[in-house]
# Entry
Amino acid sequence: QVQLVESGGGLVQAGGSLRLSCIVSGRAFNSFGMAWFRQGPGKEREFVAAINWSGPSTYYTDSVKGRFTISRDSAKTTVYLQMNNLTPEDTAVYYCAATLFPLSPGILEPKKINSWGQGTQVTVSS
# Structure
């Protein structure tokens, strides 16, 4: 298992930007694929973006493509989610997640996640 600690959430106006960070610790952390999920009020937890610790591939849900960017810094064992052009529909608790399932194009299901962070609140005002 790995431990995940998110930070960077907050309140921002529509059109603004935030960068979330997830510090990863634990044995063999780089064996895990890393992802961000979010859960809005009254909604189910949904996949946002994913990345491996090596290689160029990144994966996004359609609603954030072109606005969000997932990246990693292996030396800092940190995964980031840069969120631009935010809208009120992006309001949610954002969770960092780690999975042993191979990442691939498409939606990553929450049931395939091995470890979750505690979540960080993102609120976008109109």
In short: The first strand starts at residue 3 and ends at 7. The radius of gyration is 13 Å. The chain has a mean pLDDT of 96.
